[in-house]
Amino acid sequence: MNKLMCMACGEEKINKYGLNSNKLPVLYCKSCSLTFIQQEPISNNQLRNRYQEGDFWDDANYDLQKMHDSNFTDEQGKHFALNWSSMFEYSKKYILKNQKILEIGVGTGVHMIMFDKHGYDITGIEPDKRNTLLINKKLIDGNCINGFVEDQNFQNKFDIIWLYHVVEHISNPKNLIEYCDKFLKNKGLIIIAVPDCDNPDSLKDSIDNPDHLWHFSKNSLKKLFSKMNYKIEELDSMSSIKDLNKQRIHSRLEKNKFSFINKKIWPYWPLKITKNNDGYEIRIILKKT
User: Per DSSP, what are the bridge partners of residue 281?
Assistant: First the structure.
C-alpha cells in the first residue's frame, strides 16, 4: 500500500487530525504544517457543479444582488470592499496600469469591479452563472468569463494573476498553478491570499468550512512553491485590527476626510502585518522565474 505524501513538501509524515463538518477525514503534515482534507471522497465534478450551479453562494447567505445594487456599501458589501482595498494596498507597488490582470475565482466581483473602476486591464473567470451576469453589468472595460480556468485558452498572456481566497477551495492547487503558469508572462506575478492556518483559531474556522480542502501555513506555502518555477517576493501574515480605540480613531479620521492619515498609519486596514500566530490570512506574491 502506497504511503500518503504531503502535496506541499512531499514528506510522508502524515497524521490524522480529525473530521471536518462534512465528516471527511482531515490530515496533518508534521513536516510543513499543511492540514488538508483526504482527497479520495471528493470528485472534481462535485466541486465544479457546486460552484457552477450556485450552491456555494446559496449556502453562504450573502445577498449578492444587494451588494451590487449598493456598490458594495451595504453591511455585507463593505466587508468585501475593505478586503479589496487592503489587498490592493499590499500589492499595488507590483501592479502597473499598462499590465494585463487575470482574476481566477471572481466570487462577489468586488476585486474585479474595483480594478476595472480604477482603469486596470482586467479579465475574470467565475464559475457561478448568476455572479458572472451581475459582475459584467458593473464592468466598464473588463470582461468576466463564466467557466473554469482549465477550460480556457487565452491567446494573450497576462502580467498578473490574482487569486483571493481561491486556492484553499481547489481540489489540486498544483494543477491550478500549472494553469496559471500557462497563461502568465515570463517574470509575471501570482498574487494569492489564503486563510492563515498558523493561527489555531483560523485553522479551526477553516476546517469547519466544508468548502475549504486545504489549510495552509506559511511554511507549507514556502515548501509548495519552492518546487515550482516561482520566487517568493512577499509572504506575510495579516491579522485583524481589533483594538477599539484604533477603530474609533480610524472612524473619526475617515468621517473628517483625513483618510490620507489613516493610509499612513494603517495602510492595510482593517488588517495589519503580524509576526504572531494571530493571522486572519496569509498573503504571498510569487514571481515567475
Answer: 195, 238
Amino acid at 157: K
| Cα angle 130, 103, 163; round to 5 | 110
Residue pair 94/285 in contact (Cβ under 8 Å)? The answer is yes
Own/partner long-range contacts of 225-229 (Cβ < 8 Å, ≥24 apart): 225/177, 225/284, 225/286, 227/10, 228/174, 228/177, 228/181, 229/181, 229/288, 229/289
DSSP 8-state code for residue 275: S
The helix (run of H) or strand (run of E) holding residue 250 is: helix 244-255
| Residue 178 contacts residue 227 (beta carbons within 8 Å) | no
Is it true that the peptide bond before 270 is cis, omega within 30 degrees of 0?
yes
**Number of Cβ atoms within 10 Å of the Cβ of 150:** 13
Average pLDDT of every residue of the chain: 93
Rounded mean pLDDT of 201-210?
Answer: 95
- Is the CB of residue 62 less than 8 Å from the CB of residue 241? no
Q: Which pLDDT band, with edges at 50, 70 and 90, does 83 fall under? A: very high
* The residue to which cell 482531515 is assigned: 26
Which residues, in sequence order, are CB contacts of 63 under 8 Å at separation 6+?
74, 76
Fold of the CATH domain 47-195+232-288: Rossmann fold (3.40.50)
The answer to whether the CB of 60 falls within 8 A of the CB of 79 is: no
pTM beyond cutoff 0.85: yes
